Amino acid sequence: MEPLNGFQITLRILYQFSSVWIALLLLFALSLAFKRRLGLYGKLFDSPIGMIGFGLVMFWVFTGIFGAMDLIVTHDPLTQVSGMKNKVPGTPVPGAEAGEYPWYLLGGDNLARDVFSRMIKGAWIVVQIAPLATLFAFMVGITLGLPAGYYGGRLDTFLSFLANLILAFPVILLFYLLVTPEIIETGVPSYMAAVLFVFPIVFLGVLLNSRYFTRPNFRTPLLIGVLGTAIWLYLAMISTGGYIISTKTYSIPGLPGVLDPFDVPGGILVVFVSVVFVNSPTVFRIVRGLAMDIKTRDYVAAAQTRGEGPWYIMLWEILPNARGPLIVDFCLRIGYTTILLGTLGFFGLGLPPESPDWGSTINEGRKLLSIYLHPALPPALALLSLVLGLNLLADGLREESLKD
Amino acid sequence: MGLFILRRFGVMLLTALCLTFVVFFLTNLYPNLEKLAKTQGNQRMSDEQVSAWLENRGYRQPMLVKYGQWLGVAPGFSKTLDDGQFVGTCVRPGQTKEETPNFCGILQGEWGYSTVFKDEVGGIVAKRLGNTGYLMFWVLVLMVPSALLVGVLAGMREGTVMDRSLSTFSIITTATPEYVSGVVFIAIFASSTVGLKWFKGTATQAMDNPTFENFFLPVLTIALYGMGYIARMTRASMTEVMTAQYIRTARLKGVSFPNIVMKHALRNALIAPFTVIMLQFPWLLNGVVIVETLFNYKGFGWALVQAAENNDIQLLLAISVVSVIVVLVTQLISDIGYVYLNPRIRIS
């Protein structure tokens, strides 16, 4: 088998991505055809910047999803093939059998694993964690920020002090304090998860209750259904193997294993929790500022005169009117969360060392950077393009939402 | 104004106390102490030996007592072991019982003893801060003028090709975290196989003998990430100023365009970036940790990583105190500066 040259590598990589190209084409064709009926999302396709950003983001989202379905990857991201250590891109795999992909498209890393497949698998980790963690941070920030901005006073002073406290920590110090095996052993992250994951439930409960408060016949079954599911998911998420917290000396029993559909691995949970924890104070400050601004508007006064409850006003009058800046910030924050995940990997915190996420791969590749470039560069450029896409998307959204 | 600053100082003190207590609490959890005992004593210690080691050195006292000792409001712990060794929180290696002070905390000006570097924490932090201060100085020298220039050039004529390209440039820099740009720069400029070989990929020598060759890449890497954000803020505030009434008046009077930008617009446009530059300091601190690790420059961020990886409690506490002070002081300066630069805003 001959080594591939640069042109052949490019062609073959483009071909490996063919499922992503098809999905992207379909998505763009459909969106462009129906863009007038799709609200803010459709308007995004009026701005070239927004379209480029959206394209980049969706490219990585599709790559992550299809990569998880083993469509794009050429080799197993953890298998080491002897003789492929630090080999340059396009090197043929020695003794490749029929059905195996005969080349390492982007070369091998210092443990002789395929760089290309690891980059694709890394996308899936980011696509799984970053949006969800950002969503949770928003739930926490909104649930605490709205009352702080709306009521003001002591509550506001206290919550703002807490938020500033967390913000005054250098992020990396916080990560080093929270995301170590020793701390995981003490169960601190599990406690934090138990507290932080309550907020989405509170948010949902208050949201629905304040809306359908006057129609108890409809509200009660709705709340039982939604909250029941949410609490079940909550318990499933925080309990592993039947225990919420299990340390050497004591343990708190949680959801029994029969009812527990999925276990979040300890490493992922602590990464998730710390990223939510770092992001929520900033979201809190934004929501609080917006709430303070919007509560002086006439429609809020009108709702107060009608006798609406404070939570109805906060969640159904103030929040929908704050959605523009919040959506833009959501996009930017997913990018920032991606950067944070990379930072964690870069310092070797949280995820297991063999994990193919981009940060860990960059960290491993940088040690031999002056001799072998190819293990570190693909994940670095992948991360760069995803964050860039999110930034451009946020810019496009901001531009289009300002036009209203 | 005086009362405002006084109140801010009060809040600052309270924040620093809370934060150090959090750090103290987390570093003093038992598994962390176990790690400390094993690195200091012997990797193969049994559980009983670890417990005894910690007991003898005062690590098993109640949390608040230990925190008090660190602050210097409670007398330090000391004990003479069975083999005649004298140990305790205030005891430095080689000191006898008579030489050891009763109190040794922040209030006495003692920052403690680093278990990793086997030295006084105060001295270590000062030395590392000096290194990082030098790095930060050059980062600011590079970052602030270029960011302001990019922002002003992009914002003075909105929607032109120059605006578009400079804005894209600033978006790209904000989307590139230090560990990505650092890796890319090393690949392009410093790699020994391919690349330009203009600079060195490590800044280890820059601590004694900083030259352009070994020092420029770390500076550029930190500066670039912070630059995009400042440039975007400057651009936003510049475009806003350029549509103001008094600029239109000046144009109608026939003032030349360079004159309008330099004499009329710039002063007002630079108020917002000032606060942003000040608030960038906490972010720069993050960048410093990454870049110092990547380029092996032994500064403050490097010390943070070393302290955290080895659970060096007192060094970690001193580092968090310093970084909290940096964050809060820059916030205070940005608030005061904002009021000072913009007389329309008064503190309520």
Automatic annotation (TrEMBL), chain A:
Protein's cellular compartments: Cell membrane
Keywords carried by this UniProt record: Cell membrane, Membrane, Transmembrane, Transmembrane helix, Transport
Xref: InterPro entries: BP-dependent_transpt_permease, MetI-like, MetI-like_sf
Keyword Transcription: no
UniProt superkingdom: Bacteria
Transmembrane segments: 13-33, 45-69, 123-146, 158-179, 191-210, 222-246, 266-287, 330-351, 371-394
Ranges for domain ABC transmembrane type-1: 123-394
Pfam families: BPD_transp_1
Membrane topology: Multi-pass membrane protein
UniProt family annotation: Belongs to the binding-protein-dependent transport system permease family.
Name of the molecule in the record: ABC transporter permease
Species of origin: Ruegeria sediminis
Automatic annotation (TrEMBL), chain B:
Transmembrane region(s): 9-30, 135-156, 168-190, 215-232, 270-295, 315-341
Keyword Phosphoprotein: no
PROSITE patterns, alphabetized: ABC_TM1
Pfam families: BPD_transp_1
UniProt keyword Chloroplast, yes or no: no
Coiled coil ranges: none
Membrane topology: Multi-pass membrane protein
Domain ABC transmembrane type-1 stretches: 129-334
SUPFAM superfamilies cross-referenced by the UniProt entry: MetI-like (SSF161098)
CDD domains according to UniProt: TM_PBP2 (cd06261)
Annotated localization: Cell membrane
Family: Belongs to the binding-protein-dependent transport system permease family.
Name of the protein: ABC transporter permease
Source species of the chain: Ruegeria sediminis
